[in-house]
Amino acid sequence: MPDAGAPIGVFDSGVGGLTVAKEIMSQIPNERIIYFGDTARVPYGSKSKTTITGFTRQIIRFLMTQKVKALVIACNTMSAYAIDEVEKEISIPIIGVVKPGARVAAAQTKNKRIGVIATEGTIGSGMYQRFIANIDKDVLVLGKACPLFCPLVEEGMLDDPVTDEIARRYLKELMEKDIDTLIMGCTHYPLLAPTLKKIVGEKVRLVNPAYETARELKEMLSDTGMLNPDDLAKQSKGHEFYVSDLADKFRLFAAKILDDPGLTTDKVDIEKY
Amino acid sequence: MPDAGAPIGVFDSGVGGLTVAKEIMSQIPNERIIYFGDTARVPYGSKSKTTITGFTRQIIRFLMTQKVKALVIACNTMSAYAIDEVEKEISIPIIGVVKPGARVAAAQTKNKRIGVIATEGTIGSGMYQRFIANIDKDVLVLGKACPLFCPLVEEGMLDDPVTDEIARRYLKELMEKDIDTLIMGCTHYPLLAPTLKKIVGEKVRLVNPAYETARELKEMLSDTGMLNPDDLAKQSKGHEFYVSDLADKFRLFAAKILDDPGLTTDKVDIEKY
């Protein structure tokens, strides 16, 4: 079994999961992260459950070779499709971004109407709906797939009238159905929070699953005595970043998001795992 | 060696190549097509040359098991990155969409200023620029990556003020540089031709590489005596469609694009090839 000094494996289909890694770094700064982004096969949003579960198993096999003490699926689609199957197959704790976000949304809604915006895969899986129904069967969960949001974020169009217009269309139905809570169910979406806030107004609360996931991870490590007692600066290594393609492009993006110009990224042939 | 009765392998990263398959069916209706769409790893547009060349080799290995007489790379990114390497490795003719489109554009331009719109991968490869320079070194080729066009097409936003606005931004610089010819360098883009035409006006000619590729394939088969002499209806099998994921979703889309509600699609584990 790994000890408290072991790193945490965090993985995503690409760069989006860096927002989750950043939250973990901020909330539990002693923890060392091994990040994997599947940039050769990104995006996962419109692929099947079987394919995504297979990809998830390959990534977990790679991260297990890095002797991690816990895993975080920093991708809503993988969390939605694969977590229930893969958690039976491994001996260390695994947390996905779906359940923490769902729990907080269910606790916060007053009128029991929650909206979820995410990729087609996450919405199609019905995972948020099922999980929230398990907590409180009286909550109505309305899902809306927003396939243009990720490419808009990747084009850097975060504050743009075109993005406003597309967001207005995507959110129209949810607003007409009077939601009071909106889960940003894709790791790219918190970067659109100012745009979303402008459209949904003050009465709707935005839930950021990245934040809630880091909080839950901290609690879980604390409850099991697995929080790393040592300052990261005193550990033998820092965070490590791996991708399946375009390591340099990833490195530039990650360096900006994490405000760490010195980070390095290595390429892994993930299909071998 | 395969004979004239053998099928033609046509492949793409996903559904986009169906526009090329459709042109082939229309221009040389006797030819039987074996189509492969890599829906598990789509899109290719922002992946590296090494990764894309590897994917291309796997797809070719699969299509060779189907005893094809010729191959058509119905994907600009694969044509741009991989064709020069893979054509040395196989014994049957292979045509990509880049060269036919480039040849026609070079022949048509009057003021020697050609614009190319495509994915980041195709533009970044500089393939259109290099190939046109080989034909006529005085032609100025201006490339512009348009990463939002594919998701807009996949959202069905073909005739929409948002798409107009995004197209206007993407084309602004090319129009200021006074192009008279515009290559639609991604198989999705011909579906946006009416929008593009509205913005570039009558003075700019649009080049559709799918059309030119089918024309060149027909010529090549004719010149080598390899045109199929038999009516497709009299052959033992019809067209066949294979994908790496989501066969049902692909089937619905293909049935619509090709106006053939009866077509079937099978899933192939492409990573095994």
Your description of this structure?
The structure is a homodimer of 273-residue chains. The first copy, chain A, has 273 residues and is of the alpha/beta class. Chain A has two domains: 8-97 and 211-272, Rossmann fold, CATH 3.40.50; 99-208, Rossmann fold. Chain A is 44% helix and 16% strand. The first copy, chain A, is built from eleven helices and ten strands. The first copy, chain A, has helices at residues 18-27, 49-64, 76-86, 98-108, 120-125, 127-135, 149-154, 161-176, 193-200, 209-223, 247-257; strands spanning 8-12, 33-37, 70-73, 94-96, 113-118, 140-145, 181-184, 205-207, 240-243, 265-267. In chain A, strands 4-3-1-2-9-10 form a six-stranded parallel sheet, with helices on both faces. A four-stranded parallel sheet of chain A has the order 6-5-7-8, sandwiched between helices. Chain A is globular. The mean pLDDT of chain A is 94. The A-B interface holds A 39-41, 43, 46-48, 50-51, 147-148, 151-152, 154-155, 162, 165-166, 244-246, 271 and B 39-41, 43, 46-48, 50-51, 147-148, 151-152, 154-155, 162, 165-166, 244-246, 271.
Strand content of chain A: 15-25%
- Mean pLDDT of chain A, nearest integer? 94
| Structure class of chain A | alpha/beta
N-to-C SSE string of chain A, H for helix and E for strand: EHEHEHEHEHHEHHEHEHEHE
CATH fold-level name of the largest domain in chain A: Rossmann fold
What is the percent of helical residues of chain A? 40-55%
Largest inter-chain interface?
A-B, 22 and 22 residues
Name of the CATH first level of the largest domain in chain A: Alpha Beta
**Count of discrete structural domains of chain A:** 2
Number of strands of chain A: 10
